[in-house]
Predict the structure.
Amino acid sequence: MKILITGATGGLGNAVIKFLHQEGNHNLVALVRDPEAENAQKLSRLGIEIRQGDYNDKASLVKAFTDIEVLYFVSGNDIATRLQQHQNVVEASSESGIKHIVYTSAGRKNETKNAPLFPVMRTHIDTENWIKESGINYTILQHNLYAEVVPMFLGEKEQLLESKVVYLPTGEGKTAFVLREDLAEAGVKILNTTENHINKTYVFNGNELVTFEEIAAILSQIFDEPINYISPSIQEFETTMQSVGLPNEIIGMLVGFSLGISQGEFEDTKNDLEVILERKPTNLATFLQQVYS
């Protein structure tokens, strides 16, 4: 069974490839935009077949997907263009004869246009529907927020020690953060046994619900310094971020996710990830200790 991994040089796709390679799977294909790039060449040196393809170019995808049975479809990260990109991937999968798509979607509760993260989630909703309508066997993996976004939201250790504040308008919202490595490991388990996961949707969460106030408390223990939590109004947050020169698109992203968190979009306790991994996912405190110690 030949498996193609998209996003092969990105964090999630690369982790999936490395897990599969370590298991001795020699029927791997890595999809990359630039085969000459260093990260692509690293995969090539491991003996992994490299194929060129771009989500923006459907013809390149049809060619790259030739003789592929299973596609691990990592969602694109360009919010402005990925709706068409994802449509290209699904159409190319149909035209090239892909037998099974494993799609990395996102967990959510509110699918209405009024949801704070609707611009982000719309692509996932549409892509899931396109895949189901294609007639191709599928497994949809609805990922909760990566644990890796926490340091992205909060900044580096030096910044936190200087400000001594976690400053985000997330209110008392809880999130079941999950490590990217755990998501990759679970994805590999599914890729190895796709026949057991035909036309199923799994919700992948971390093993605990955490507020940003609790994250501040975890950081206080790691730093042995008091780190406070402040949840400002959206207007105050935007004004403050603008005053320190943060780009508007970054502010908008932080506001959107903060509102989603405050409204409980990521407060989910379904344990599909634990079932697939056959162990508890890594908790957020362990991850933060690794990042900030």
In short: Strands lie at 3-5, 28-32, 49-52, 70-74, 100-106, 137-143, 165-167, 200-204, 228-230. The chain has a mean pLDDT of 95. The CA atoms of residues 242 and 248 lie 7 Å apart. The first strand starts at residue 3 and ends at 5.
